[in-house]
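Forwarding the complex inputs:
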Amino acid sequence: MPLRLSEDEIIAGASLLPAFPKVVTDILATIDDDNATVSGLIELVESDPVLTARVFSLANSAAKSGNWRKGLRDMHVAISMIGMSRLRQIAISVSLADFGRETRVTRDFWDHSVAVGVAAQELARLRPLPDSSLVSADYALVAGLLHDIGFLWMARFYPLEYQMARQAMAQPGGESNIEIERRYFGIDHCQVGRILAIGWGLPSSIIEAISSHHRPNPALGRLVAITHVAEILVAALGMGMNGHTPFVSLSDAARVAAGLDWKDDLNSLFGRIEARSNHFGRIFLSMA
Amino acid sequence: MPTRIRYLPIEDVAAGMVLGAPLVIAEQGVTTFTLPAGHELTDSNMAQIAQRNGEWACIEEDDPRRDDERAADLVATQAHLDNLFAQTDRSQPANAALYAALLRYRSL
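Prediction (whole assembly, two chains):
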């Protein structure tokens, strides 16, 4: 019998998941805050001892390549070694990777999320159209890492229905994956993800990206377009398919809104996405 | 000998390799380190890149494949792409352009 999941049920299930890392939403808040300081960022990172240890570990790797003889113990020095934007990227990625591990996501799910996060980051760095908005690369990374988070909830609380839906998706037919999800759950992973993201207090543009990456109306903002295009590029590159049959269907309106121009050096873009995803995959594996 | 371009995570890059494109490391949009295309990487360069948290590099390397091997690889690449695009409507210009761009990339 098909399920008819309600928002209340999804929220109740979410309360049984490990706590979403508050440091992620706090760091995202600092990006839009003109008064945010380096000290504020350090304070946020240092509020989490595990995260602090990991930042030092990565900074020490960089330090060993230079003239540093002693291990780093000071976050200000660590920032001078790795830079502010890199620190934010590390703090966000490590926190979400830990959250993923605690939530028992599969390796394939995480690989897919990392690849879409990296692709979204790369797209965010492209020059936008004149009337299009700038998107923070950190926002794009988080949107990419969390875009399929609704699947996690579905697999965790309704594993049988989830497997049945996955098997149906693997069969050739006229039904889209989203339609199949709605048939089995009464709701799709984008809607589940939206409810989770609201509950976690994520910024509205990231909520919209999680909610609408399969329906990328450019009016919904550039981050929605970027997340859609990122997922399609990752599928077309055959990277981390999260067990899904690839479905490559690129919205041209979203491509334009994301700032992807066919005249650009796409070899370099594809190469960066593959190489950086591989790089991050290894970093996270080494931390497991 | 013909050469080919590869994009590698920094863990797979080593001294002695030749850059196929400029290596540029930036922080907050400001370039902090750069090396030109064609530069042969040294141990010192590798340390500098690691210090600045370089994540990837574009490498140009010898391509020892014969012409027939290269042609066979292209056919295999196209078959792999066809599989990935099996459910895709390639009459849509955006999908067709993406397929063509990926075929060019995979043929590097």
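Residues 67-106 of chain B form one domain.
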